[in-house]
Amino acid sequence: KDAEPSAPLLVQSDDLFHPLSQSPIPEVRERAKLIKEHSHCPVCTAKSGGKERVAPAFECPDCGHPTHCSEEHWREDQVDHALLCPALRRANEDEHDLRSGRTFPEFDFPGPQHYDEAINFANWDTFFYTRRFQHLDSERSAGHVTKLLTFPITIASLLHPASPYRPGRDLTPAGTQALAAIRSTLAQQNQITSQDRLTRREPVRIFIVGSRAEGYLPPSVWAQLSHLFPRTPFHLHLIGPQAVPPGQAPGRRTFSSGLSITLTDKLLQEVTPHLTPFDPYRDLFFLFSPGIGYPGSRDVWEGAIRSMVDTKCPIFFTGYSPEDVERDVQEVKDIIQGMDVEWLMHPTESIFRCLKPDVNPTDLSEIGWDNWGLYGIRGRRFEVIE
């Protein structure tokens, strides 16, 4: 029987740029409508001292986004807009590529790393090479892949013995100590019982607090974390009101002997009693771009951060941009004021941030990258040495 013909592509790989409102893809046209409804002309806003928010009806011919209220204001704003235009154009083309209908061989990820094969965490390029990723033949493909892998590989880059983050340069003495404790657990091997049975150790638990997009990642993406530590079982807890995707139920799912994922649609402080006891040698927290510093967010986050600090386990945060990280760090400092807390990692640019820019549709001047920055704290631990 002859193979069925594949569906025609909505856009060709050499014709990815289209003004958003004239895109052949309905979802992209909807994005143009969203921007026009919620964004604003920066020239009008500046001239009114921030009092006016005029809808951006004019689409920039270079990036295809609705950026200004008129061509006149677009021309007037050329110097400032030129700083944003390349990233906006890339976002335009990336969106058309993802929805073009083509196959994506770059999403065929490698399996477990062999014990004798070294991994280089110097940057994305060396990581992809030593992990034997295939089909990453363009900057666009790498952007698509890192949009997914930035989450598990950001975690792995801190935990792995080949971590690129160095004591004294990136990590504080407390950070070096905290990660050494986790790594000592990761280095342990499974035990052979007297009945010659292989006994899996207790899993390393990673609590992803305030989970949003992370809950939508396919298990094959999170499996890349367990593939890097084939001797260690991981149990990921994705916690937060938005952690459970539509159509799924909260609860635990086991995908392999090395990976289990539990989805919980409650606040951390509501489920903490069910997760105790916590062990700094096998438990840690991650907050991916939580937006703690945004107006009104403190009430949501203060209880969770205090609960995490009380566990004495490592807590790592990321942010979308330098401004986002700075805003969140200041709010975290205010929340932990008066608590006995030590810094594990002062804010630094993450080596494994997403390579693909994200554009805020309500303000096109806000362009960020998933997990651009990285920093960490923990409740101070007192060791008694006899």
UniProtKB/TrEMBL annotation:
<dbReference type="InterPro" id="IPR032717">
    <property type="entry name" value="Mss51_Znf"/>
</dbReference>
<dbReference type="GO" id="GO:0008270">
    <property type="term" value="F:zinc ion binding"/>
</dbReference>
<dbReference type="InterPro" id="IPR046824">
    <property type="entry name" value="Mss51-like_C"/>
</dbReference>
<dbReference type="Pfam" id="PF13824">
    <property type="entry name" value="zf-Mss51"/>
</dbReference>
<feature type="domain" description="Mitochondrial splicing suppressor 51-like C-terminal">
    <location>
        <begin position="193"/>
        <end position="361"/>
    </location>
</feature>
<keyword id="KW-0862">Zinc</keyword>
<keyword id="KW-0479">Metal-binding</keyword>
<dbReference type="Pfam" id="PF20179">
    <property type="entry name" value="MSS51_C"/>
</dbReference>
<keyword id="KW-0863">Zinc-finger</keyword>
<feature type="domain" description="Mitochondrial splicing suppressor 51 zinc-finger">
    <location>
        <begin position="41"/>
        <end position="98"/>
    </location>
</feature>
<protein>
    <submittedName>
        <fullName>Zinc-finger of mitochondrial splicing suppressor 51-domain-containing protein</fullName>
    </submittedName>
</protein>
